[in-house]
Amino acid sequence: MFTPMAAGAAPVKNVVLVHGAFADGAGWRDVYDKLTARGYHVQIVQNPLTSLQDDVAATNRILDLQNGPTILVGHSWGGTVITEAGLHPKVAGLVYVSALAPDAGETTAQQYEGFAPTPEFVIEIGDDGFGFVKWDMFKQGFAHDVSDAQAAFMANSQVPINMSAFSTKLKNAAWRSKPSWAVIATEDKAFDQAMLVHMAERMGSKITKVSGSHALFITRAEEVADTIENAATSLAGK
Fold first, then answer.
1. What are phi and psi of 130, to 5 degrees?
2. Taking 60 as the threshold, does the pLDDT of residue 7 lie above it?
3. Cβ–Cβ under 8 Å, residues 84 and 174
4. Which of 33, 86, 88, 178 could form an SS bridge with 63, CB 3.0 to 4.6 Å?
5. DSSP structure string for 98-114
């Protein structure tokens, strides 16, 4: 379905990283450091998490700044964002990091249908419709493989998401026209494993499985960076 760029084409040296719900772009620091050390130009989107439209706009704003072909990467809810934003003309490929991947006309919430529940990942929703991961379950549900201190910091600095975003239908699915890669954490407590595999296989993604929690963008930064680099080099026809 997809063909690489012609041999000798300019390498893809731009990477844009998109965080998910309950987090911010700072979690990408280790991935950022590893890729910039390898010569990549990396920028990080700070999603407002107020709506799908707002997060896509924030992503497009950073994509507009890129000077050439770009790998667009999303973690968790960020997968929904890159699925919509990935039609941007500068996006050469997509990398999903334990990420959601709806199709056009689908909602994010629909991706959970028919899959096992995740009782250790509990979202508490306020009267204003914004959700947080329950504080006393944050480590076991989101990041069981970080230290207690880091998990506490992540829980207490989490960014809430407007839960209505999960019921917004996507207008586009960039993975239908652009190549994709998927990194799946085998100990992810936020998503059923079968759900992650189903979404990745439906996209036709090249799948890499790693042992880790939902916070693999932090705890398995080396493997995530390697996958991003593999995507970039394969798209350059190397």
1. -95, 140
2. no
3. yes
4. 88
5. S---PPTT--SGGGGTT
